[in-house]
Amino acid sequence: MSCSNPRQTRFVSSLLLPLALLAAPLLRGQQPNETTVGVLAGLLAAADARHFDAAALREALSHSDPAIRRQGALAAGRIGDPAALDLLFPILNDSLPGVQSAAAFALGLLKDARAVAPLLQLIRSVPSTDQRAPQREAVTAIAKISGDEGTRALSDIIAGGSPEAATPVINAALLEAWRLGPRAPITQLVRFADATDPQTRWPALYSLARLRAAPGAAALIRGLRDGDPQIRTVAARGISKALLDSARIDVRGAIDGLRPLLDDRDPHIRINALRALASFRDSSLAGAVVPGAADRDIGVAVQAETTLGVLRGSAAIEALRARLTSSVFAVKRQALIALAQADSTAGVTAAAAVTGDADWRWRSVAAEAFGAARARDRLEAQLADPDGRVVAQALQALQRIVPAADSALLARAHALITHADPAVRSVAADLLARHPSTDDVDLLVAAYTRAEGDPFNDARLSAVSALGAIAAASPSGRLRVATKFISVLPRPDDYLVRRLAADTLPDTRDAWGPAMPIATGRTVADYRDVARRWLAPALGGTNPHIFIETDRGTLEIELLPAEAPLTVAAFINLVDRRYFDGTRWHRVVPNFVVQDGDPRGDGWGGPGGGFVLRDEINPLRYQTGSVGMALSGPDTGGSQYFITHSAQPHLDGTYTIFGRVTGGSTVLDAIGQGDRIRSIHR
Q1: What CA–CA distance (Å, rounded) separates 246 from 495?
Q2: Which of 187, 360, 425, 567 could crosslink 387 through cysteines, CB 3.0-4.6 Å?
Q3: 292: Cβ–Cβ under 8 A, 6 or more apart, which residues?
């Protein structure tokens, strides 16, 4: 599981305060009565099952307590049924801004063009001097809706503004414009990129960087020398040789702007500058990058090693060889992989030295290095490793470097589809899907059946995808899948399997029925318990805290049940079981995220036993120290979570935020991949 290329004030945006605070809940300081608990539990049950319960939503949205009205709006958006539109439109005019904001946010989740006009009305209902969270949330919703209506509305908002006096709504529109993709108003974004106010320049440059828009390249280069560190950060992240080439701009100006940033006081800026320099693939830049490999900030050091691997050349190779002696797992790991990329012969030799290590992690790193060196023979030898985690890593590397038409790798997949490790079987099924063959139907059906007892469902999902590829390839394939799989096996209990089957195997829609509503496995008593123990107290102002004791220090996390009650309840349950104690940060991406929660330690694992969380997307923004739920697709949450190093607006509204760092923030940047979590406790 992973968050995709996952990301101001330190913990709470000054622009977008937590909306629960704006609702001024009447429950503060009170014990919830059972009637209130029942209303909240009904909302939790409906949202969790993705079941449109008009009566429950109507009751909540008309409740006297604004905190409950807000919960009703969030539930309506999460359920995803357009029938909620008529319930949400009236509360855009609620008396409290927190409820208005939640209604606008929910309409953004529904992504129905009919909501654009009411959202615009909310924006225009107050003068620019009175624009607050509801108006900004309406802008975000319009951007999410996009399409003809959303694109036109957002473009008109930006076009009507002035770089000299941008309003909060204009700034929000600039920040969200990247969501429009190729239809974004690039010319208007460039117009605001040199605004006097950095709070206007930054969102304009952010969207230009996300869009990789050639007309914005010159503005990004200018941003490298900006006095505002937030702007230098986003400018450095947006610069790449591909962008400059598309804009037909000489690279020397950008390189001259990036070099000083390697010594910037802010390590996040140093990291982004190193990433940008890697895109030039110019070995003459290695000399400027080498000092970064010894940086005191581990994120900078690891990114410098990564960049040296891409730049190559003698200076890079010499520096990477020196880092192989490091006692820090994250540093030595990246040096080994980067050396393999810079010099395949040297990298293979170095990686071969750890293939016999007793620690499976080093054998897995060797597979990563062999993949970087494209050493197929070495990877194929690792397919016999006794640890499935190493085999899965090697097979994934082979999947990346071996052409799809290679029949030898297909033979490997046929053999490994029966492997004991579910991750190996998942990758093997993905490889079979590259060559859809009716001859593989029986093998894949057997793999699907075996995967029913796995601790995670990836192998089962991959088998369904491969069967879908076979059915789509030919009429005979569709018939064989229908007779050997769909008509023989019972409707799966796993909602994710049913949803994937409905998308890839249309015949299952008739045989298995609709994917929703979801059988969540929770009882009414379960939902009432969550509402009573966690949600109602949070609406009254009381949030639980947990402490993550790591090798680098302790992080204090405030959990946010008002934003993600079921996620928080499940996480606390795992904490109380000491589930996380002794695990390691299995994924760390400098100036992006640290990620934990996998007992396997390789990113594939979870609690097992059918444990899965539906997304509880909420209006909070990803800032420094935001805690989010890692996913491998919608509604696939489990035990893996991540914490952002810095603001990551592109994650907003996609990954559930359920906590934030409130203590030990300096520890966050000190964490390296492989560092241990001693314990997580309340």
Answers
A1: 44
A2: 360
A3: 262, 270, 274, 300, 301, 303, 304, 307
pLDDT tens for each residue of 211-233 = 999 999 999 999 999 999 999 99
**Which amino acid, 131?**
Q
Q: How many CB atoms lie within 10 A of CB 63?
A: 17
- Please name every residue paired with 660 in a beta bridge, in sequence order, or none if there are none: 558, 626
For residue range 248-295, list pLDDT tens digits in order: 999 999 999 999 999 999 999 999 999 999 999 999 999 999 999 999
φ/ψ of residue 490, rounded to 5 = -70, 165
Q: Which helix (H) or strand (E) holds 42?
A: helix 34-49
Contact 366, 398 (CB under 8 A): no
What is the H or E stretch that residue 593 is in?
A: strand 593-596
- 545's enclosing H/E stretch is strand 545-550
CA 47 distance to own-chain centroid: 21
The residues, ordered by sequence, that sit 6+ positions from 259 with a Cβ below 8 Å of its Cβ are 273, 288
- Two structure tokens written together for 3: 């968050």
Q: 445-468, pLDDT tens digit by residue?
A: 999 999 999 999 999 999 999 999
Q: What percent of the chain lies above the pLDDT cut of 70?
A: 96
Average pLDDT, the chain: 94
Question: Is the preceding omega at residue 386 within 30 degrees of 0, hence cis?
Answer: no
At residue 517 the predicted structure's pLDDT band, cuts being 50, 70 and 90, is confident
Q: Which residue has the tokens 């000083």?
A: 260
Cα–Cα distance measured from residue 440 to residue 417, given in angstroms and rounded to the nearest whole number: 11
Which has the closest alpha carbon to 302: 592, 661, 622? 592
Residue 42 — pLDDT band, cuts 50, 70, 90?
Answer: very high
Length of the chain equals 682
DSSP single-letter state for residue 534:
I
CA-wise closest residue to 439 among 396, 412, 474, 409: 474
Take residue 523 and report the two structure tokens written for it: 């009882």
What is the C-alpha to C-alpha distance for residues 220 and 208, in angstroms, rounded to an integer? 8
Strands 593-596 and 626-629, bridge-based pairing: unpaired
Largest pairwise CA distance in the chain: 72
Which strands form 587-589's sheet, in the order they lie side by side?
Answer: 587-589, 593-596, 641-644, 626-629, 657-663, 553-559, 545-550, 677-681
Q: How confident is the model at residue 199 (pLDDT cuts 50, 70, 90)?
A: very high
Give every CB contact of residue 55 below 8 A, 6+ residues apart in sequence.
none
**Position 560: which residue type?**
L
The rounded distance, in Å, linking the Cα atoms of 670 and 680 is 18
